[in-house]
Amino acid sequence: MTRWQEIARATVGADYAAKYAQRFRALAARGDDVHGEASFVCGLVEPPARVLDAGCGTGRVAIRLAELGYGVVGVDLDASMLIQARAEAPDLDWRVGDLATLDTGETYDVVLVAGNTIPLLEPGTLDGTARALAAHVRSDGGLLVCGFGLDAAHLPGDCPITSLDEVETAFAEAGLVPVARFSTWDRAPYDDAAGYVVTMHKL
Description:
- With 203 residues, the protein is an alpha/beta fold.
- Helix content is 33%, strand content 19%.
- Strand 4, helix 6 and strand 5 (143-149) form a beta-alpha-beta unit.
- 42% of the residues are buried.
- The mean pLDDT is 96.
């Protein structure tokens, strides 16, 4: 069982994938904006740009991007999450894959890593994941975008904290160069005290 599965089962229950998908459907139904990550991508590239949603979960972001005309591939290690994604959008390209060893055979305009995927990685796999993600970024203007919590208040369950310094070091060793940093998906200026970061890198 992965770190994510252990935390999800402990905090939500055995049927966490269905409950996770339902939670966001309920938020959207009451009028909440659940598309912050997709909107962020829209501000970077126009459709039909290619986007890799790395750690796509139940597909919320990838589905929205596809609706907007982007070419999207969604990858997640948790097959139960992809069951929900396929049920919602059966025609999209969903793939089971470990980000630490990922090789889709393609590069993308944007590689998006949202949903606390980075701190939920398996122990010892950050460096390998950084290299695999970098290998999927187009060398001529492609971007790697990552959003994740930096404190307990912004992480699920007892997920351990992965520091920004750790991530930046791993990305630098993978050949990635920082472009910008924010505290929210709506581009609020980065603040150490915010507890959340959205990073942008290029090759």
